[in-house]
Write a structure and sequence with these properties.
Helix 5 packs parallel to helix 6. This protein is about 20% helix and about 35% strand. The chain has 13 helices and 39 strands. By secondary structure, the protein is of the alpha+beta class. Bound molecules: 1-deoxynojirimycin.
Length: about 675
């Protein structure tokens, strides 16, 4: 070989070594619009890596993938055996949701790898116009079980983002979200929302979490990593081959309306597993609930017991007269007496009412007034006991005509059949799935409090309708810090709500609480109405007491009219942590609803009505803050007015501090 040729070969080898990916093992998949490319390659030593390029610019630098198993490392030592691509374009109909029809359009790349140990692992990448996803697929192989100690999916941001997050150990995910530069963040729960250096946005989360630990994100400079919520033994996941991990996805958009409109998470979940889901119906409900949180009623039996037959009938009468489909009752069953000193060796009875609750009579009354009962199962975190009586508990409710049950796990570490485990561990995830699947057999929908963070499972199990996993309204009744700041509700649509419907419980109409006087809902009345549009939940609770609603029938009219199932949803404008304006069209109807909310800053905003049908005229019923409304001094000042509008109009709306507005647009 000539000297010059030798030099050239050496040079090329050097270049190849310096490159993050070895050229021969590099393959890529592009989004259908061609703006986004996900490139996969094996770096030196067979380390699987990917990078992401958007509009020709690297957004995520080469980032490694892999696992640490109990008996070996799957972080290097791979060879590429095969890679194949396919395209997918399908529009599917949701049982309920923010949109009736969802388009799933993506290109897929599957890389088949073999580890030097013989373990086979595929990585599946999907490129969407608004982001990308990947998951690990361990196909059928000789080795039949895998013990995962940690997962090494990473995301090396090319430029430092600002990250909205809550700390990973936050009990029940009930914290205020905060923003910090990535390099200043500590381990955070998934999801996180990112403000990117180029003005764009990202949302990072997982989809289809069914038998695996919930993920969290670690931060090291610009590199984000994965931390799986472990079993108490330290193991992350016990798996039998074949299996697929949940999807890891990143939504990437230029602006917030596109971020909020992304349906990547639902598209990554499996289609509906319930053959005939016609029994699953979105509804609004009130409940024997706020009184307990405010301290004027008790869950346990006694002189101020909330869930009595008499009270329930009173609530049902109000619901029947005011267009509310159901009433929740908490504290109807034996087991609440030790609540204040709760420990998980005690348990609740799920088929034994307190003596002042007549379930048969209430089932009969429910039929006669046409208002459903929303059942309640607080487990106190004793998931093992709950599983042991699950069938009887759901059969009991079904026999009494109950179609929706709120579940709860108030204990930081739940007792599962596998011992005491984090509710976000693989053991906890299995428990929640078992509850959803069992409830489906009894035609019961679930509103899960203290859940594992939702990941879009409602596509497969649409009876999983709503969940908590948020610092909800209840904190405003008793939080030692006096209640959530006004900003909180303007952060949630871009963070927690991106992971799925939330049972936040809007609708406070009375801002005084003499029993716990230092607490406060930091909101005006108009802001509470706006939340019914801004916050999506197909089981939507109006949380206040009927007596408070009866005092303000004009304002309650909006809660009466607003739907909780939508044909289309559009973020009209907003800034994370400042304000939000959302428009939604009633499912199967012509009418639109717009909700606006602001933080502690009073502000004005234009609502451009270009989403209305051209040539049609609409009656706009506007519920807005009075000129001097503000959450602290004047929360009740509400103006209700009507005007004719068309798609060419713009409504100029003013919101007081902690204020908002709600607009109903009725097609004429
Ligand atoms: C916490 C839930 O979030 C709340 O809604 C419920 O009232 C209590 N647990 C009691 O189950």
């Amino acid at each position: 070989m000539k000297n010059s040729t030798m030099k050239r070969i050496l040079y090329l080898m050097l270049v190849a070594l310096c490159m993050s990916f070895t050229a021969c093992h590099r393959t890529e998949v592009c989004s259908p619009d061609g703006r986004l490319a996900v490139r996969f390659g094996l770096a030196a030593d067979g380390v699987p890596q990917y990078e992401v390029v958007r509009d020709g610019k690297t957004v995520i630098e080469p980032s490694s993938l892999g696992f640490e198993l109990a008996d070996m490392s799957l972080r290097a030592g791979f060879r590429l055996c095969d890679s194949r691509q396919s395209s997918h374009d399908e529009t599917w109909e949701t049982v309920w949701g923010e949109e009736r029809l969802i388009r799933d359009r993506h290109n897929e790349l599957i890389v088949s790898l073999e580890h030097e140990s013989g373990v086979k692992m595929n990585i599946i990448f999907r490129a969407f116009n608004d982001g990308f996803a990947f998951c690990y697929d361990f196909p059928e192989q000789e080795r039949d079980s895998i013990v995962i100690m940690s997962e090494h999916s990473s995301y090396c941001w090319a430029q430092e983002p600002q990250v909205w997050s809550i700390p990973w150990r936050t009990e029940y995910y009930e914290a205020l979200w905060s923003k910090a530069a990535a390099s200043a963040c500590d381990t955070a729960c998934s999801p996180v929302t990112l403000e990117l250096a180029d003005g764009g946005f990202a949302f990072m989360h997982e989809a289809a979490l069914t038998d695996y630990p919930a993920q969290n994100y670690t931060f090291n400079g610009l590199e984000m990593g994965t931390y799986l919520t472990p079993w108490q033994s330290g193991v992350a996941a016990y798996k039998a081959t074949p299996f697929m991990t949940p999807w890891r996805f990143v939504i990437l958009t230029d602006n917030l309306p596109d971020l909020v409109a992304s349906r990547i998470m639902l598209n990554l979940n499996e289609p509906c597993a319930i053959e005939d889901p016609s029994w699953i119906r979105p509804m609004k409900f009130i409940g024997i609930w706020w009184g307990m949180h405010q301290g004027s009623m008790t869950w346990y039996a006694g002189p101020i017991h909330g869930a009595t037959t008499e009270n329930m009938k009173r609530y049902m009468d109000f619901a029947a007269q005011n267009g509310i489909q159901a009433v929740l009752a908490e504290g109807w069953n034996v087991g609440w007496d030790g609540w204040s000193t709760w420990d998980d060796t005690k348990h609740f009875e799920f088929t034994t009412p307190y003596p002042d609750w007549d379930m048969d009579e209430l089932a009969r009354y429910s039929d006669s007034v046409g208002v459903e009962i929303v059942g309640h199962h607080e487990t106190g975190g004793n998931a093992a006991h709950y599983e042991s009586v699950l069938d009887e508990a759901y059969a009991y409710y079904q026999a009494h005509g109950v179609h929706a049950v709120k579940t709860g796990y108030v204990y930081p570490i739940i007792t599962t059949v596998d011992g005491k485990q984090f509710n976000r561990s693989q053991s906890g995830v299995r428990h929640y799935r078992k509850v959803i699947e069992t409830a489906a057999r009894y035609h019961i929908c679930i509103d899960n409090h203290e859940p594992v963070m939702p990941t879009g499972l409602q596509r497969t199990w649409p009876n999983l309708m709503s969940q908590e996993g948020v610092r909800g309204q209840e904190w405003n009744a008793w939080a030692k810090d006096g209640g959530s700041p006004c900003e909180h509700v303007t952060v949630l649509p871009f963070t927690r709500f991106m992971a799925g419907p939330v049972d936040y419980t809007p609708g406070v109409f009375n801002f005084e609480n003499p029993i716990i006087p230092d607490t406060r809902v930091h909101s005006t009345l108009a802001n509470q109405l706006g939340l019914f549009v801004v916050f999506y939940s197909p089981l939507q609770m109006a949380c206040d007491l009927p007596e408070n609603y009866r005092k303000r029938p004009e304002a309650f009219r909006f809660i009466h009219d607003v739907p909780c199932d939508w044909e289309h949803s559009r973020l009209l404008s907003g800034v994370i942590g400042d304000y939000v304006v959302m428009a939604r069209q009633e499912r199967g109807g012509d009418d639109w609803y717009v909700g606006g909310i602001t933080d502690e800053q009073a502000r004005e905003t234009d609502v451009v009505l270009d989403f209305l049908d051209k040539g049609a005229s609409y009656k706009a019923v506007i519920y807005r803050d009075g000129a001097l409304a503000d959450w602290e001094r004047n929360p009740y000042s509400l103006i209700i007015e009507e005007q004719e509008v068309t798609e060419g109009d713009t409504l100029h709306m003013a919101m007081g501090a902690g204020g908002g507005f709600a607009i109903q647009l009725v097609k004429q």
